[in-house]
Amino acid sequence: MDGKTTVKYLQSYIRQKDYRPELKKDYFLKLTEEVGELANAMRKDAKAPDMDHLVGSIDEELWDVMYYALAIANLYDVDMEQVIKAKSKLNESRYPSPVPFEENR
């Protein structure tokens, strides 16, 4: 990867691969399952030693959580790039920070 994978690309990739609106509840159940697996990996402090050994690691489970969160966003036609920008502005007004959110990065 080139380090330039966007949220928009990930949503498009997931939509093409895995889009079943009739299974909304199942996607949510899968997300909660993955959160549990992430908790288990974190409890074990199971960081992947390298990208060839991801199974059961925090690294793998974080991607699984992101995958299902973005899949759910797709089911509801939520453009996460727009939400990230809007939520960042809202958070900045609530919790000022010296670190600004930079768009188009």
What does this structure look like?
The chain is mostly helical and 105 residues long. It has one domain (8-84): MazG-like (Helix Hairpins). Helix content is 61%, strand content 0%. The protein has 4 helices and no strands. Helix 1 (7-17) packs across helix 3 (58-75) and helix 2 (24-43) runs antiparallel to helix 3. The model has no long low-confidence stretch (mean pLDDT 95).
Provide the number of structural domains.
1
Assigned CATH class: Mainly Alpha
Largest sheet: none
CATH topology (fold) name: Helix Hairpins
The best one-word shape is globular
The second-level CATH architecture is Orthogonal Bundle
Order of helices and strands: HHHH
- Tell me how many strands there are: 0
* Alpha-beta content class: mainly alpha
Low-confidence stretches: none
CATH H-level superfamily title: MazG-like
How much of the residues is beta strand, in percent? under 5%
The pLDDT mean sits at 95
